[in-house]
């Protein structure tokens, strides 16, 4: 019996140890489950560490000047009772400054009270209880130790839409989503909609100009043929597709796609909000879900949940827009596989670090292009993207015509028209060339066509830096698109659509693009629609006569459109001679030290008077697009620059030239200095020359 009793005692001791360990594990599991447990519905009392203001926390401590008070968030063994001035500093520095903010209304301060289940630490024969600092979640009352973990925990609640607090004293907000309005279209977004890594439905208000440009391009295509099937491959909130359907109505059949289930749900809710019908189509099932009722619901938007490559492989579209987060090269092959003839593909690239030569190895990896940072880096980025688009289209036996290329601070937008057939594909592929860039003077020129190796490729550059500078002075960039970046007729029609639909932000940019496409400083814009046949011919490959019936529109896959395409291609080749010059010069990069440059608009007039084509560019606010060589560019800039010191000196040629043009020749000739000889050559009227012959000998003027 004694042995049995001893045995029983030993067994019960081991069982007790296992029970203690089990209770510890259950307690830790329960604490871990509390972090993610938001299913309880009953309201709890708000913890004292969650306050609105620091004054509320001080009221909780009941500060008095003549009495010592303990900290309400710390045990006495950690922080002893003290006077008010010391307790105020303790509450402010230890608890309030390291708090976690929630929606700008509440602060979850750090708590040192024994709220969490404590694990005893055994050191020898002594047991130490570790009082860990922690935070109390305002939503699910979980206790979390680290501040970064607490911030991530709150963000996960917000991403799931769980922002209603379960505390009695914390009133819940009316709604967890915001409703934004853009171009008469309402969309609801999550609170962190501007952070793509933390939100399923990303919405960037800074891309409003980008959305307006794409809408204008689609509106121009909708005028050519109706109805057209258009795809927004990356819907997110669905703002772009909703704008298409709301303004163009029966002219377009809109499909909004996204591979994220939460985004698809939000797109359907936004269609609800804008009184649109929804046709839901996913991989698993194809069912029609009509949302909304009434006479206002006359438009239907198809919402799909697929990978963008899959839907573009399965279906054909007239208009495709690609706007992924980052580069779009992974979706180009699928986009050009089934796009219809004379359709439009637009893509927005936001991988600015690689395209703007900040991460050159990424540009080589994604686009197969070698680049360096230059003064014309934005146009270089646009030509890199177009070269990738051209190669992807050529793999599908399709050529492209570039309609629009815009590179701004946040994105690079490229809009191209698709031309089916191996001949257009070959013609487009021939326009991909390498660029020779001089690193000393930043002169640049595209390499000549042909496969023969040149003995001295530096001879192609207009500059002579290689002969005067030691070592290698130039680099080869590319391959790049060497053709035109703009289609004047198409951009003019986009401007007309922007005026018609009241897109104020896109109108100034489109006007600049028209001048840049024509390479002129003259701004003649018509707000009337393209009503005559000649204006339609500027559009490139598609011609539509006014007031035609529906039978005269282009029919996909019909042979009757081939003659129209051939005639338009001939017209397009004839217009290639009037293409705008490639690249531009920054007037500040080539300024002369110690000289004041002329105003940019006046400098454009001087270049134009010298017989060169010139215009401003949207790529650079101080850039000048011209066909003048860099040496002549610098010569004219130096000629009309004035010295920075003006005390006791005569004014430079810029001011005197203005005086001569204004009729003040007498004052200009009275100075009698060496600069007057230059004005004798430039004066068209001969009045100044006559005055010089009266007052001075002929050899003095020649000197």
UniProtKB/TrEMBL annotation:
Signal peptide: none
Keyword NADP: no
Catalytic reaction(s) noted: guanosine(27) in tRNA(Tyr) + 2 S-adenosyl-L-methionine = N(2)-dimethylguanosine(27) in tRNA(Tyr) + 2 S-adenosyl-L-homocysteine + 2 H(+)
Composition-biased stretches (Basic and acidic residues): 18-29
InterPro entries (UniProt xref): SAM-dependent_MTases_sf (IPR029063), Trm1 (IPR002905), tRNA_met_Trm1_C (IPR042296), Znf_C2H2_type (IPR013087)
Organism of derivation: Rostratula benghalensis
Pfam families the record matches: TRM
Region named Disordered: 1-34
Keywords noted in UniProt: Isopeptide bond, Metal-binding, Methyltransferase, Nucleus, Phosphoprotein, RNA-binding, S-adenosyl-L-methionine, Transferase, tRNA processing, tRNA-binding, Ubl conjugation, Zinc, Zinc-finger
GO molecular function: tRNA (guanine) methyltransferase activity; tRNA binding; zinc ion binding
Cellular component terms per the entry's GO annotation: nucleolus
Protein family membership: Belongs to the class I-like SAM-binding methyltransferase superfamily. Trm1 family.
Domain C2H2-type: 137-157
Protein name: tRNA (guanine(27)-N(2))-dimethyltransferase
Compartments, as annotated in UniProt: Nucleus, Nucleolus
GO biological process: tRNA N2-guanine methylation
Keyword Ubl conjugation: yes
């Amino acid at each position: 019996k004694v042995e049995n009793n001893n045995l029983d005692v030993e067994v019960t001791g081991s069982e007790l140890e296992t029970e203690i360990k089990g209770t510890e594990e259950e307690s830790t599991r329960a604490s871990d489950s509390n972090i993610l447990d938001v299913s309880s519905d009953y309201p709890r009392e708000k913890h004292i560490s969650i306050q609105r203001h620091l004054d509320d926390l001080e009221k909780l401590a009941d500060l008095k000047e003549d009495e010592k008070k303990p900290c309400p968030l710390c045990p006495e063994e950690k922080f002893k009772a003290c006077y008010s001035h010391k307790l105020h500093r303790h509450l402010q520095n230890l608890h309030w400054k390291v708090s976690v903010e929630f929606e700008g209304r509440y602060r979850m301060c750090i708590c040192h009270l024994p709220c969490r289940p404590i694990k005893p630490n055994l050191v020898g024969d002594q047991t130490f209880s570790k009082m860990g600092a922690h935070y109390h979640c305002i939503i699910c009352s979980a206790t979390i130790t680290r501040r970064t973990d607490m911030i991530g925990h709150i963000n996960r609640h917000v991403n799931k839409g769980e922002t209603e607090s379960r505390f009695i004293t914390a009133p819940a907000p009316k709604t967890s989503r915001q409703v934004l309005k853009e171009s008469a279209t309402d969309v609801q977004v999550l609170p962190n909609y501007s952070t793509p890594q933390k939100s399923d439905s990303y919405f960037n208000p800074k891309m409003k100009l980008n959305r307006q440009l794409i809408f204008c391009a689609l509106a121009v295509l909708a005028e050519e043929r109706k109805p057209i099937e258009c795809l927004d491959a990356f819907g997110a909130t669905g703002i772009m597709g909703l704008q298409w359907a709301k303004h163009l109505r029966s002219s377009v059949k809109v499909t909004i796609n996204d591979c994220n289930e939460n985004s698809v749900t939000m797109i359907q809710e936004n269609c609800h909000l804008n009184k649109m019908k929804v046709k839901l189509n996913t991989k698993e099932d194809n069912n029609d879900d009509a949302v909304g009722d009434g006479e206002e619901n006359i438009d239907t938007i198809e919402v799909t949940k697929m990978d963008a490559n899959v839907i573009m492989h399965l279906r054909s579209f007239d208009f495709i827009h690609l706007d992924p987060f980052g580069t779009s090269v992974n979706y180009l092959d699928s986009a050009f596989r089934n796009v219809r003839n004379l359709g439009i593909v637009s893509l927005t690239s936001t991988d600015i670090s690689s395209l703007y030569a900040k991460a050159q190895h990424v540009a080589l990896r994604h686009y197969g292009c070698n680049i360096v940072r230059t003064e014309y880096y934005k146009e270089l980025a646009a030509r890199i993207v177009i070269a990738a688009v051209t190669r992807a289209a050529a793999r599908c036996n399709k050529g492209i015509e570039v309609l629009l290329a815009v590179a701004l601070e946040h994105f690079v937008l490229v809009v191209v028209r698709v031309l089916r057939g191996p001949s257009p594909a070959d013609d487009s592929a021939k326009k991909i060339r390498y660029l020779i860039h001089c690193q000393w003077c930043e002169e640049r020129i595209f390499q000549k066509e042909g496969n023969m190796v040149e003995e001295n490729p530096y001879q192609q550059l207009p500059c002579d830096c290689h002969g005067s500078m030691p070592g290698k002075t130039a680099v080869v960039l590319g391959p790049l698109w060497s053709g035109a970046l703009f289609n004047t007729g198409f951009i003019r029609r986009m401007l007309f659509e922007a005026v018609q639909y009241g897109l104020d932000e896109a109108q100034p940019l489109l006007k600049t693009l028209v001048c840049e496409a024509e390479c002129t400083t003259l701004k003649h814009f018509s707000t009337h629609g393209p009503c005559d046949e000649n204006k339609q011919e500027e559009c490139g490959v598609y011609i539509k006569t006014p007031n035609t019936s529906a039978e005269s529109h282009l029919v996909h896959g019909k042979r009757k459109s081939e003659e129209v395409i051939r005639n338009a291609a001939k017209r397009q080749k004839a217009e290639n001679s009037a293409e705008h010059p490639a690249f531009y010069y920054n007037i500040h990069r080539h300024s002369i030290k110690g000289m004041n440059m002329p105003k940019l608009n006046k400098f454009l007039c001087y270049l134009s008077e010298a017989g060169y084509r010139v215009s401003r560019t949207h790529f650079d606010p101080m850039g000048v697009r011209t066909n003048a060589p860099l040496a002549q560019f610098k010569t004219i800039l130096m000629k009309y620059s004035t010295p920075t010191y003006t005390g006791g000196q005569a004014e430079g040629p810029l001011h005197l030239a203005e005086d001569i043009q204004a009729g003040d020749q007498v004052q200009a000739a009275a100075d009698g200095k060496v600069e007057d000889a230059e004005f004798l050559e430039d004066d068209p009227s001969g009045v100044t020359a006559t005055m010089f012959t009266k007052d001075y000998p002929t050899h003095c003027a020649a000197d």
